[in-house]
Specification:
Elements lengths: L1 E5 L3 H8 L6 E3 L2 H7 L3 H11 L4 E4 L5 H11 L6 E6 L2 H12 L3 E7 L2 H9 L4 E4 L1 H6 L4 H15 L4 E4 L5 H10 L3 E4 L1 H6 L4 H17 L5
Helix pairs in contact: 1-3, 4-5, 6-8, 8-9
Bound molecules: SN-glycerol-3-phosphate (G3P).
SN-glycerol-3-phosphate binds next to helix 7.
């Protein structure tokens, strides 16, 4: 499973990138707002840092404007994926931009039917929002599993990019049900390493290193 980082925080991306954990980055208007940066500037910096796809979201709701914005966004760098909302206008923009050879991430997906439409429009990525479904007492992971089955039934190449990941359990479950990608905040990815037995075991080894005076260099 590929890991995308769901942030526009350059330092956080750089820190995780140094560990090999960053296969791509996703941003959205809320994350751009949180960064306090200009969208074009911060997106360019992210693209310079990361080799994989970097999703940048359009601001328009009209298809022609989304297409124009998408064409501007892809000028930033070769690894831009234009993010469009799951509306008919967004799907029209997806089809046009995909036909032009650009990567498109269709976002705000909350149903298997929406994911089917996005695949038919040629989306590179579909972004089902797990946490926001969990928020309204619907199991977001069931949606990932349903989309996996539908895409596999018909050989759709659209990648399932599980989004709105809030917990480390979401990460495990995404990998178990076969999401192609998960995009998670840096804090969630960093928490995946935590295990008390690792800490306890390391403490014991360090005590023995100290008491025995074990040295390598
Ligand atoms: O990738 C989408 C994500 O940014 C939304 O997350 O936690 O606001 O539902 P959240």
């Amino acid at each position: 499973m590929k890991f995308f980082v769901d942030t526009a925080d350059i330092d956080a991306i750089a820190e995780l990138n140094a560990t090999g954990m960053v296969d791509g980055v996703t941003t959205n208007p809320s994350l751009i707002k949180k960064s306090g940066r200009d969208i074009l500037e911060v997106t360019k910096e992210i693209c310079d840092l990361v080799d994989g796809p970097v999703s940048a979201e359009v601001t328009a709701t009209d298809a022609d404007e989304m297409i124009a914005e998408g064409r501007k966004l892809v000028e930033i760098a070769e690894n831009i994926a234009v993010k469009v909302p799951l509306t008919w206008a967004g799907l029209k923009a997806c089809k046009t931009l995909t036909d032009e050879g650009h990567k498109v991430n269709v976002t705000l997906c909350f149903s298997a039917n929406q994911a089917l439409l996005a695949a038919k429009a040629g989306a590179t990525f579909i972004s089902p929002f797990i946490g926001r479904l969990d928020d309204i007492n619907i199991d977001g992971m069931d949606l990932i599993a349903d989309i996996r089955q539908i895409y596999d039934n018909y050989g759709f190449e659209t990648e399932i990019l599980a989004a709105s990941i809030r917990t480390v359990n979401h990460a495990t479950q995404c990998a178990l049900v076969g999401a192609d990608v998960m995009t998670a905040p840096p804090g969630v990815i960093k928490s995946m390493i935590n295990h008390p037995l690792t800490d306890k075991g390391l403490d014991a080894f360090l005590a023995d290193i100290k008491s025995a005076g074990i040295k390598i260099l």
